[in-house]
Predict the 3D structure of the following.
Amino acid sequence: MLLSPNDLARLAALAAARRASAPGAAGGSRPGAKKGAGSQFEGHRPYSQGDDLRLIDWSAYARTEGLYIREYREEVEGTLAVLLDVSASMAPWGKHLAARRAAAAAVVVALLQGDQAKVAPFAKGRPLEPRGFGSAKDIPEVDRHLEALEAAGPSNGLAAAKSFLSTRRGRFLYVSDLLEEESAGPALVALRERGHSVTVAHVVAAEESRPPAGLLRLRDAESGEVREVLVDEATAASYARALEEFAAGWRSLCAGHGMSYVRLHAGAPLAEWAEGIC
């Protein structure tokens, strides 16, 4: 069982809070992440050269003699699609379990809000077959379906994300350790530019952050390639810097394109990450 009764109770409370903050939105549209010329008024900001003149609030100009732009938040359809990495690199150190728990939690909250949800597990060589869930009565099946998934094969997140580019505007959660031969970043940005709300859940394990010292025999979980590496203080420091630069690159990509980035530590309790992912 991926989600305990206590987990489900916490998620139910989160869903209730979300419903209260967006009355009347269940099963329909939701506030998105992108500000622009949507339908939900968000506020004003000073005019900048290049802004759409149609968005100038002339009544505010009459009062203040200053140019201000009316900002609106776009609305997205009340649907959630979870792209779940089930490649072999997810198998070690509890990452696969953490990813499936995150996917289950996000789907549960969506269903309790009255939305529909789907889960699309991806790995190279595995057919991309999204499984849809339509209501809260499907929650037990969500847990069973995700618990049965195994991690195997190389990742193909780029192709998986591309396959959703023509879908109706909605919400996407991309759950992965992001260790991919080809980054899914460009396809996720393309989804965002098409009006989808996108959250990237970056799954990391403590063992990846703190490799032990000494001569290590490492095997690539996806390719099977084996290397021996001597880890001393300088090597460990260089590795730590590279890992942080990698994560910082994803944070920057997400921030620059209106996407959300959440770093999900394998083994962390649901309370630490549920609000950012669901």
About this structure: The mean pLDDT is 85.
